[in-house]
Amino acid sequence: MADNVIRVLLVDDHQVVRRGLRTFLEVQDDIEVVGEASDGAEGVARAEELRPDVVLMDVKMPGMDGIEALRKLRELANPAKVLIVTSFTEQRTVVPALRAGASGYVYKDVDPDALAGAIRSVHAGHVLLQPEVAGALLSQEEGHGGTGRGSTLTEREQEVLGLIADGRSNREIARALVLSEKTVKTHVSNILMKLDLADRTQAALWAVRHGLTP
Prior knowledge:
Elements: E1 6-11, H1 15-26, E2 31-37, H2 40-50, E3 54-57, H3 66-74, E4 81-86, H4 91-99, E5 104-107, H5 112-123, H6 131-141, H7 155-165, H8 170-177, H9 181-195, H10 200-209
Parallel strand pairs: 1-2, 1-3, 3-4, 4-5
């Protein structure tokens, strides 16, 4: 069972929030809270030390905020997936976090079961976007990041891109297309390079906008 446990790091400047999140998660058999941090800089340091699978992180924190911490986390070897846990609903707060590499976001009043489900989802390689935020990201991407370059993708790359947009992880894509995970990773890298996109979130949005979803 230990091999299947998702190791989680909590990053939030409010101790009461961290305590609440820990309480939610301690009852989950497949999730283990391996550490806590009170700001972005400490969160990056703890992530490098502990190598968690998923980081739950606030956006607004003193010192290094969540956006800057996200950028630093992406520079680490084998970076953890990041799930934003925020009380801010404004697109101007959430959208930059997603563009910086977060795999999704939930609100701090999230139901415990929904929080656990979100952690499992991002750990599996899925992207969690609420419709209003997806729409905002799409509008920002219009005219940028690969528009008109879809014809450079091979048929197989288009299939992989469609499955990314469907929220599939590399492992799930490999199973669906009867490929090795290594081959899928190569296809994903080629897709990002050809479309001049930074990450899977942007790739998923590009696919939605251009009608490549399954």
